[in-house]
Amino acid sequence: MAEAVALSMSMGSYLKNSSLQATECSRQEPSSSLRSKFLGCKLTASQASLQLPSIKHTRRQRPCVIQCSVVQQSQVQAPDSVFITPDGRRAECYGVFCTIYDLNEVEKPKSWKKLLRVAVSGAAGTISNHLLFKIASGEVFGPDQPIALNLLGSERSRNALEGVAMELEDSLYPLLRELNLGIDSYEVFRDADWALLIGAKPRGPGMERADLLDINGKIFAEQGKALNAVASENVKVLVVGNPCNTNALICMKNAPRIPKKNFHALTRLDENRAKCQLALKAGVFYDNVSNVTIWGNHSTTQVPDFVNAKIHGKPVTEVIKDKKWLEEEFTETVQKRGGALIKKWGRSSAASTAVSIADAMKSLVTPTREGDWFSSAVYTEGNPYGIDNDLIFSMPCRSKGDGDYEIVPDLQINEWLATRIKKSEEELISERSCVAHLIGQDNGYCDLTEDTRLPGEQ
Amino acid sequence: MAEAVALSMSMGSYLKNSSLQATECSRQEPSSSLRSKFLGCKLTASQASLQLPSIKHTRRQRPCVIQCSVVQQSQVQAPDSVFITPDGRRAECYGVFCTIYDLNEVEKPKSWKKLLRVAVSGAAGTISNHLLFKIASGEVFGPDQPIALNLLGSERSRNALEGVAMELEDSLYPLLRELNLGIDSYEVFRDADWALLIGAKPRGPGMERADLLDINGKIFAEQGKALNAVASENVKVLVVGNPCNTNALICMKNAPRIPKKNFHALTRLDENRAKCQLALKAGVFYDNVSNVTIWGNHSTTQVPDFVNAKIHGKPVTEVIKDKKWLEEEFTETVQKRGGALIKKWGRSSAASTAVSIADAMKSLVTPTREGDWFSSAVYTEGNPYGIDNDLIFSMPCRSKGDGDYEIVPDLQINEWLATRIKKSEEELISERSCVAHLIGQDNGYCDLTEDTRLPGEQ
Questions:
Q1: Could you give the number of structural domains in chain A?
Q2: For residue A443, what pLDDT band results from cuts at 50, 70 and 90?
Q3: Fewest beta carbons within 10 Å, which of A13, A27, A349, B70?
Q4: Does residue B244 lie within any of the structural domains?
Q5: A128, A9: one domain
Q6: Residue B126: pLDDT band with limits 50, 70, 90
Q7: How many CB atoms are closer than 10 A to CB A138?
Q8: What mean pLDDT is reported for chain A?
Q9: Is A345 in contact with B159 (Cβ distance < 8 A)?
Q10: Domain of A425, in residue numbers
């Protein structure tokens, strides 16, 4: 099948009648049933030719001719299932979303913004199973923001990905105007305004952290290259798959076209957990806790900062007098929350992770409350805290709500904080050294003396 | 432990210092560790005595004396884990929610409504794992409606229930002001404004539908009695656990204090699926499809009504000319959607079911769009369609948004519809006969000749 068609479909068309001669794939078609499904698409020759030049990704471009004829709307059966060729190189529209999403049509509410495209990897997983519905519902980007979801799965998760698509269809979210599925990041990330990189290999039994860094690093290097090739030039990238800081660094290094400021690794779940524990200890509701920073790596070296945190606008240390708890138990509780949850729940947190991803995104598209900040692991270049200049490191950030952010300066770094932040920095430097081969450096060596575990790892 | 204390905790208190002599359970305490956790509570004697008379459920009331002394806020560790006695008879506050939810305090935004209490059974299951977060986020009842969640689990799901509670804590939803867990419906349903009855035994291998009716019927009879005893007098009850129509009937019959109109069984997922399939067939976006009714039982006899449905305000039959598809494939596709999803996804729909539950609730608390309606299985007494007067039967409803509804009259019932509606009615009459022993009738016999399956059953 031709990429021209995949692209045309994903760009959207809403035509009552159309007839088209286009390019047919020069190779053998995988099956006639897939082919006949595909012929239900709606497409004009003019659209196909108009869109061809916009194909940025040329690696697997093929000369193609397609015959696509749509006779009468009421007799058309739109494709009812995702179309993925056996070579797995395509993101395509799904079901009802193949026919409906031309936002230039009269049915688009006038007040709506331009379509926003969100690409999600690990889309068939449990975190995504919560997150996608939140994004489609309008909770993250607001009730006037139509959404396209591009979902990246794997060969193995293909059926589950279709299951997710069916459930999104059945949810009738008015803002969800496009749904494309695929297993090739070069297709799925095309024109993405946001890329949520959730999929990663979990650490298997007996696997060293260095192995995990290498295996996942390769995935994120490839995805960085794909983003570089096909995503929107100002795409925001949020890495959730662990080890997320170093994965984000790898991704960023492989995507030189994209501003380095646009790469984030998720530490918001840690921040939310820290706020909850401070509230619990102080006996206040959690919305009275503010200015909580997670410093460093999303690992057991992370530093939940009670020094600069506030309760009811007052320093936490004035409200919670139990210094031992703050300096010892608090940090440990936050770090071990994921593991405690796994013990209770039998699997890792999905719902609250999805909530924290939505929170992290909302923090970039809504103005930060005056005097407050949020945590995100961002690129350290020129940071005001003297952290090594080439890491993805969690720090206090604030945003005007335009998708961009700035690192909040002038937090008090006392000795307790400084020691721990240093340790997390050293860990990230070690991790970076382990993945030197993936970020264009040739002086790497891997010596992770302390085998720190990710939050939640058993 | 004293019910006085459980109640006081669930009513909320926000005290800096308190000291109290109250009643202690006359029986042996289960463990000193549980006891010491409990002693972290915040409670005044005046609160305890004030609240004692409001205990409606007297079955297990015990004379009690409690010593509860709280010294200083900053040294208090609020209970960090649910407290359930080994006899499993109590709903209690969870973690951070034990300390924070007195909405009479200054911190409550002035514009907020009175706390709304939502009880959920099957709270540790996958549907609830989506639904609870939606309710807590404000999506269902709006941004000015503080929420109390009372979660009903089972002995087996106790840990998972705590896992859900941990994730709700970590989500920092400002509207979620109370979270109580328990495994006794008489505790969990106390003062509930809404009861979402999701938990039910699934059909096991080789189990007849009659067996399923009996097993689940007993659960819903007990839950009906509990609602009758302790819930708010105008509680809205939505039954999701299958077979949901007859379960709702059983529940209603066992709760004579609660208005019969307040009982619903969920057919909204079927309606949503029907809308999606009509949109897909017509090549329009699903928000252009309206006036879709699901008639009858949430089973394979359900009748998705294309006769009265509209697309772009026009009768569906004028837009989709393919009569064979409408009369045969459409119904079958809707009925079998659940099963198709299980095949893809490996488990039954959870996310889209939760979305449809939220939709069903929103339909009762927001005014129905002029000229439109929604489907809900409701009590048939006095219905305008000549359906047997003593069933829970899905029909077109509309609401002023006050929690109440009326059945929409004057839909066109042609022969195609009439035949199928009759069949679904007969099935529900048979089911009712099978559960006669659970609804106070003594003329029951169970003769389910056709073993219809629930949507989604394999």
A1: 2
A2: confident
A3: A27
A4: no
A5: yes
A6: very high
A7: 18
A8: 80
A9: yes
A10: 268-438
DSSP-assigned states of every residue in A294-307: EEB-SSTT-EEE-S
Question: How many CB atoms sit inside 10 A of residue A300's CB?
Answer: 18
Going across the sheet that includes B289-290, the strands are B289-290, B310-311, B314-315
The pair of three-digit structure tokens given for residue B177, joined into one six-digit string: 């002001």
Q: How many residues does chain A have?
A: 458
Q: Which of A76, A272, A320 sits opposite B170 (nearest CB)?
A: A272
> What is the residue type of A317?
T
Q: Give which of A135, A120, A40 is closest to A81, Cα–Cα.
A: A40
Nearest CA-CA distance, residue A306 and chain B, Å: 14
Residue A93 forms part of a structural domain: yes
Smallest CA-to-CA distance from B39 within B28, B61, B24, B57 is with B24
Q: Residue B346's pLDDT band (boundaries 50, 70, 90)?
A: confident
Is A352's CB within 8 Å of B284's CB?
no
DSSP state of B262: G
- Which tops the pLDDT comparison, B31 or B145? B145
The answer to whether B268 and B412 are in contact (CB under 8 A) is no
Residue A30 has pLDDT above 50, yes or no: no
User: At residue B100, does pLDDT exceed 70?
Assistant: no
Q: Which residues are CB-neighbours of A439 under 8 A, at least 6 positions away?
A: A221, A249, A250, A253, A254, A432
What tokens were used for A196? Answer: 């949520």
CATH number for the domain that contains residue B177: 3.40.50
pTM of the model: 0.82
Catalytic status, residue B130 = no
Contact A397, A375 (CB under 8 A): yes
CA distances from B14 to A426, B47, B145 (A): 43, 11, 20
* Residue of A13, A71, A7 whose CA lies nearest to A43: A13
Mean pLDDT of A83-108: 57
Is the bond into B243 cis (omega within 30 degrees of 0)?
A: yes
CA distance A7 to B75: 61
Average pLDDT on B202-216 reads: 84
- Helix (H) or strand (E) run with residue B417 in it: helix B415-434
Does residue B95 sit within a domain? Answer: yes
The minimum CA-CA distance between B275 and chain A, rounded to whole Å, is 8
Q: Give the pLDDT of residue A91.
A: 62
User: Could you tell me how many CB contacts below 8 A there are between chain A and chain B?
Assistant: 199
Q: Which amino acid is at A337?
A: R
Tokens 């939502």 correspond to B118
pLDDT tens digits along B230-240: 999 999 999 99
| Residue B151 · residue B132 · CB < 8 Å | yes
Residue A325 inside a domain? The answer is: yes
Reduced to 3 states (helix: H, G, I; strand: E, B; else coil), residue A7 is helix
The minimum CA-CA distance between A43 and chain B, rounded to whole Å, is 13
Question: Is pLDDT above 50 for B38?
Answer: no
CA distance B184 to B188: 6
Q: Compute the average pLDDT of residues B199-228.
A: 90
A170/B272 touch (CB, cutoff 8 Å), yes or no = yes
- A95 to B139: CB separation less than 8 angstroms, yes or no: no
Report strand pairing: A236-239 vs A263-265: parallel
pLDDT tens digits for A345-385?
A: 888 899 999 999 999 999 999 999 999 999 999 999 999 99
B142 shares a domain with B13: yes
pLDDT tens by residue, A279-337: 999 989 899 999 999 999 999 999 999 999 999 999 999 999 999 999 999 999 999 99
* Together in a domain, B180 and B288: no
Among the listed residues B130, B264, B298, B312, the single catalytic one is: B298
